[in-house]
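re the bet — no i am not wrong, look at it urself. input seq straight from the record:
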Amino acid sequence: MSSSPDAPSVVDGPAVATDTHGWHLSTAGIPLDPLRWRALFVIAIAQLMIILDASIVNLALPSAKAELGIADADQQWVVTGYALAFGGLLLLGGRIADYIGRKRAFIIGLIGFAGASALGGIAATGTLLFAARGLQGVFAALLAPAALSLITVTFHEPKERARAFGVYGAIAGGGAALGLLLGGVLTEYLSWRWCFLVNVPIAIVAVLLAVPFIRESRADGTAQYDVLGAITVSVGLVALVYGFTKAAPHSFTESAHWTEPATLAWFGLALVMLVSFFVIENRVSNPLVPMRILLDRNRGASYLVSLIVGVGLFAMFLFLGLYLQVVKGYSPIVAGFAFLPFSVGIILGAGVASQLLPRVGPKPLMVPGLLMGASGLFWLSRLEYDSAYVTHVLPAMLLISLGMAFNFIPVSTTALHGIGKADAGVGSALLNTSQQVGGAVGTALLNTVAVAATTAFIAVNGTTTAAGMKPALTAGYTHAFEVGSGFLVLAALVSFFMFTIGKDAVKEDDEDAPVAHVG
């Protein structure tokens, strides 16, 4: 039996409204893309690749360092080169994606990321490897906000949007742990170079699937870029991250470098550039970051929580990885597998959180979730050098992963709720920027805490033997876990007092905002 295109069509029983093209309509009357779940699959592939690359090199670094002759003082650039470029350029990448088209930016980002990965995989010198990591960060800064904003403009039904952000949250939370596992496997059985080369076939597959499955969308209006704003915020963020990197001590025999002229100069540059950025954004007609985005109470709280969580959670990945390899003596692959339960916990927690979010709203999930994460980190702060993995590490890791799943999904949803499709790219970029900057700050700050605690332990116990260093290092790592736990408690307080939005967070609420062209 046939029916008019404008009449409700029957799908599995209930009546579903359709538009003149036969597309089903959301409860808000917006056409639902029939390819949206295939598009989500492609977006998930790209997002996983980005998240993996932030951690996959951690277990490959010793092998790369030995083969390329990278000095101890320079090895940090393999990690920070990516974070600096990624965090510093995300805002510009988000705005570019809004205007040139998110699908186009997505595909360009994938191709560029694959090329940079291939360059890293064939690098013959440390300098070339550092450059490749920076180039990966540049294209990730275009790819990441395009991916997240595509979810925002593709899913309109509240339950579907929550489910889509659930997939994104599971990847964001569990991808880092999977990166450690994959890095260990590739390094041990193939070569550290495959930690880079593996991105090439993944990116190619994603590009081939993106062409038919993802629909183009872009902001209306003339593509005018706030170049001065882009320069000031990029330089400011890079200077801030590098300032914290410079402040960190480089050995257990020296103190932190907070007051050294070079460190203060970087922080001073960051302050000048970031203040200049906000002055510029309030005066130009086409701001890189419209102040209406930051001044929205719930959205601003989302970015702040994301920043604080980035600082605190980094303790788990960095110092637990060191504890398992340096103190417990795990091989790269065994250490990678030891992190696998974290990914499992994130995936399970994300499934539960995506179901609950439309029913209870973000705050009832975020506050308990952050407190669970804080409890897990505090549990890790009780570790001894001879603690057993099954009884001490595993339960704490599962508690953290479940708690973080209850945070990642609501914070992503709330950050982009009602933002308007014209600003979806820059809103997504701000969320990623807060995570990257928080993680970079956490690297330096928590490393300072750990080294200071280890140095104090050695001074009291008077030993630097191999056996004596295990409890000394453990003392440093556990102090870092303790401080990280405090940051998650702070994030829970911010969530409790600042968030006012309820179940509407997952509803389509941007029909009155500037409309994007969808093709």
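see?? The longest strand covers residues 217-219. told u. also The chain has one domain: 33-216+224-500. so pay up
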